[in-house]
Amino acid sequence: MASIIKANQLQDFGGNSILTSDGSGTVTINSAQMKNTPSFSAYLSSAQSVTDATWTKIQFNTEVLDSNGTYDNSTNYRFTPASTGYYLINAGVTIQADSTNTMGDNYLALYKNGSSVSTSSQYGNTSNKSSWQPHTFSQIINITSTSDYYECYAYADLSSGNLSFSHDANKQNSYFNAIKLIGA
Fold first, then answer.
1. E strand residue ranges, the chain
2. Which CATH number fits domain 36-180: 2.60.40.1930, 2.60.120.40, 3.50.50.60, 3.40.640.10?
3. Comparing C-alpha atoms, which of 92, 171, 76 is closest to residue 139?
């Protein structure tokens, strides 16, 4: 025999609303501890020029989501978490040269407080070099301080030509995002 419990609100012992329902199947989680926030997602909306053989901060300037105002998309281009805990941090960038067979070693790195903590690498060789290199990383990070900040940098070494971080507004191929993991 099955039982059915009908309610439009679930409260804890202190009378705080944990879950509410609007009566048509839409449930709202009211507890901050049960939400995957803070979270943000940003992308590069236009090509960004890059200096050869120099670590350059990627200016992810267009926000798709910023639940708690934790990502600065106009000045520092960094994520400063509003709460501690485990986060899944992802980034991707396409480094592009304006001519083929010129790009050597190139990297994408996640920086914490100004120092690299994770790197994606492509090592150049003498033949079959490409004019573009895509990089991605996905990292679970235990954030222990709300004053820490996270940024993305990239580096490329060219034998000739100019560099940029490329973009495609329809695909958001250069992106940076993070989400707090619940239950971790």
1. 9-11, 17-21, 27-29, 39-43, 48-50, 56-57, 62-66, 71-72, 78-79, 85-97, 103-112, 115-122, 132-143, 150-158, 163-165, 175-180
2. 2.60.120.40
3. 92
Locus of tokens 């940029």: 164
DSSP annotation of 184 reads -
Which tens digit of pLDDT belongs to each residue from 98-157? Answer: 876 677 788 999 999 999 999 888 766 545 556 778 889 999 999 999 999 999 999 988
Q: Of the candidates 141, 152, 77, which has an alpha carbon nearest to the alpha carbon of residue 109? A: 152
